[in-house]
Each structure stands twice: as C-alpha cells, then as structure tokens.
Amino acid sequence: MYLAGFRLDRFRRGGAGGRGRSRAFLPATASLALAIAAAMSSPASAAPEPPTGLWFTKNDGSIIKIAPCGADYCGTLIWLKEPNGFDGKPRIDKYNEDPAKRGRSLVGIEILIDLAADNDRWRGKAYNPEDGKTYDITFKVVPDKMTGDKAEIEGCILKILCKTDVFTKTQAVPKDATPAP
Predict the structure, then answer these.
(1) CATH architecture, domain defined by 53-170
(2) Is the CB of residue 127 less than 8 Å from the CB of residue 113?
(3) What is the DSSP code string of 40-105?
(4) Measured distance CA(101)–CA(122) in Å, rounded
(5) What is the chain's pLDDT, residue by residue, as a tens digit (181 residues)?
(6) In this structure, is the dihedral angle defined by the CA atoms of residues 49, 53, 58 and 60, taken in order, positive or negative?
(7) Contacts (Cβ under 8 Å, ≥6 apart) of 23
C-alpha cells in the first residue's frame, strides 16, 4: 500500500520486508517528535530582547533613544527629520494636556515611559505629541541580522482599537541632528 509515494506496509507488523519494525519504529518516532518539540519550544517566562539603543520611528521621521530608567526602560525623542515647523521655529509640544509643557521643544521629551518586561515583550506607555495623549503600548524587539533589528509597537484604546507601527534600529544619529536641550 502506498500513501504519498511511501510504502506503508513496510512499517506494519507482518508487512513485506518489514517484520518486527513497528515495535522499534513507533517508539523511536515518538521520541524524535518529543525531542523536536522540546527543542523548538521556549519557556514562556524568557526575558524579552532588551529595547535599548537608537530607533527610527515609522517613515524615519524621528529617532528615539531607549535606555534604562530605574527598574524599567524609557525612550527620549533625540532627533526629528523636520525639527522646525512651517513657521521656521522649532516644533513644540503644543498639544500637551499640561499647559505648562506646551512651549517645550519636542526634541528631548520622553516618548516611551516605563517599559517593563512582560513575557516576550515590553509593556508601558507612549506619549503621542501629535495629540498630547498617552497610550498603553507593547514593544517587541524582532532581531533580524539581514535587515537590522525591528521593533513592533502596538498601541490600543480600550484594548479593541489597536494600531501597530514598526521601528528600525540604527547605530547612529544623522549628522544634522538637533541636539536635545
């Protein structure tokens, strides 16, 4: 009997040319399958890849530097592709809910807040200077030796309306970087 090009009767007891093979074949196959499954699985409590370093945001519009801050990690906006607004003046945090912070430069503000390890990713908050609001996020580093590490950042409102962005790790800040205040 053939199935997908393999002769099945060889592995059944009493089949042509296969006497006694089933007793050795099944335990060996089961052991191999268990060994492969164990090797491929990773413990759920494994620490996630550290998020430290310089990260280009989507469309390479800005760079966020992530570093330890206390027991967690935080990310500071250190570079903007377009640091000045249409009026030629430095872009400011004009939508911040705190009126005292609305005049501060965007470069130098903390964007990612209190990233703490949670299984294979980081959980924390992200400040969005485009609307002045802070959102719950997850940040997962995706190592890639070919194209450079990426990070998947997912932000949600009420845990049902979610958006994912991808950051790309970089080794250097462009030469035209606006220094943080």
Answers:
(1) Beta Barrel (2.40)
(2) yes
(3) H---TTPPPPP--EEEE-GGG-EEEEEEEETTEEEEEEEEESS-B-TTSSBPB-TT-SSGGGTTSB
(4) 27
(5) 444 444 444 444 444 554 555 454 444 444 444 444 444 444 445 788 899 999 999 877 999 999 999 999 999 999 999 999 999 999 999 999 999 999 999 999 999 999 999 999 999 999 999 999 999 999 999 988 877 899 999 998 887 889 999 999 998 888 765 555 5
(6) negative
(7) 13
Q: What is the distance of C-alpha 164 from the center of its chain? A: 10
Q: Measured between alpha carbons, how far is 76 from 82 in angstroms, rounded to an integer?
A: 17
Q: What is the C-alpha to C-alpha distance for residues 64 and 121, in angstroms, rounded to an integer?
A: 18
Distance CA 51, CA 71 (A): 13
Can you tell me the distance from the alpha carbon of 59 to that of 54, in angstroms, rounded to the nearest whole number? 15
Q: How far apart (Å, rounded) are the C-alpha atoms in residues 166 and 153?
A: 6
Strand-strand pairing, 133-142 and 2-3: unpaired
- For residue 66, report the phi and psi dihedrals to the nearest 5 degrees: -105, 130
